[in-house]
Amino acid sequence: MAKAMRFLAGAALAACLAGPVLAEEPSADTVIATVNGTTITLGNMIVAHDSLPEQYKTLPAEALFKGILDQLVQQTLLEQSVGETLSKKDTLQLQNDRRSYLANAALTPIVTSAVTDEKLQALYDERFKDQKASTEYHAAHILVDSEEKANALKAELAGGAEFAAVAKANSTDTGSGANGGDLGWFGLGAMVKPFEDAVVAAKIGEVEGPIKSDFGWHLILVSETRVASQPTLDDLRAELASQIEQTAVEDHLKALTDAAKIEKPGEGLDPKLILDAKLLDK
User: Smallest Cα–Cα separation from 75: which of 40, 110, 115?
Assistant: First the structure.
């Protein structure tokens, strides 16, 4: 008898330490709490967790469980406090929220299945199939406000003055001037047309100009050129994936639209009516 009592006491202690024992395996329908008869299920908590900002999802479940449950309880209490009668605005907002959620849910599998390695490669190949090798230029310039000033500085350079030193002392382009006029590497289309034309025509290591642009007068020194490298598929993966997803969404919406009967009897109303919130009170 004493041995049996010790066994029962040990079992009771183990049960206390293990926490509440569920009658069945947990599921989305497992009730976690009730609020005035309204149930909050494990499924509600899972969905609430999925909706958290990413920085919160990194927290351990032990830290989130009580917070999520407390939030759902409080939301339920507030929901119940509204009563059965919703305002016109509340009813319409709920309709819009449901419509928006289901629209996103409908698009999720379309977007998820749209991007494949084969489609990425095909789009990448299509984009670059006709692209010719282009040239990039490494150049520096000195910008001044008059042709006379530019010619005077060009004479200094011809006399042996260092381009970088003259740029630092005289260029009105303070950004590049502080770096000796250096503009770094750039391709065609990055600079204004008169400047670009002069760069293309310039001989490596020789000062070109004065060249007039909307910014003033330039003296240009091209130090080197190179063939521009083509971006790899990995460089463009996110951009290409976004384009494929957008196309898939547009195609899906077009198919739905073509198969639907859509009527817009109110399309001719005064657009300013959407600004009149007082209509919700009528």
Answer: 40
Instruction: With respect to residue 104, please indicate whether it lies within any of the assigned structural domains.
Output: yes
Both structure tokens of 49 = 């967790």
- 74 and 94 inside one domain: no
If asked whether residues 156 and 207 sit together in one domain, one would say yes
Task: Indicate whether 147 and 198 sit together in one domain.
Answer: yes
Is the separation of the CB atoms in 143 and 173 below 8 Å? Answer: yes
Of the candidates 25, 21, 24, 23, the residue with the CA atom closest to the CA atom of residue 12:
21
Pairwise CA distance, residues 188 & 17, whole Å = 73
Residue 39's φ and ψ, nearest 5 degrees, are: -90, 145
Number of domains in the chain: 3
Structural domain for 114, as ranges: 89-126
Q: Looking at the predicted structure, is the pLDDT value of residue 24 above 80?
A: no
| In a shared domain, residues 175 and 152 | yes
The pLDDT score that the predictor gives to residue 213 is: 95
| CA atoms lying within 13 Å on the CB side of residue 95 | 7
Buried b (16+ CB within 10 A) or exposed e, 161-176: eebbebbbebbebeeb
Structural element, H or E, at residue 220: strand 216-227
Cα(152)–Cα(24) distance, integer angstroms:
92
The verdict on residue 256 lying in a domain is no
C-beta separation of 24 from 42 below 8 A: no
- Which residue has 């109110």 as its token pair? 266
Among 103, 90, 194, residue whose Cα is nearest residue 141: 194
Stretch 257-280: mean pLDDT: 95
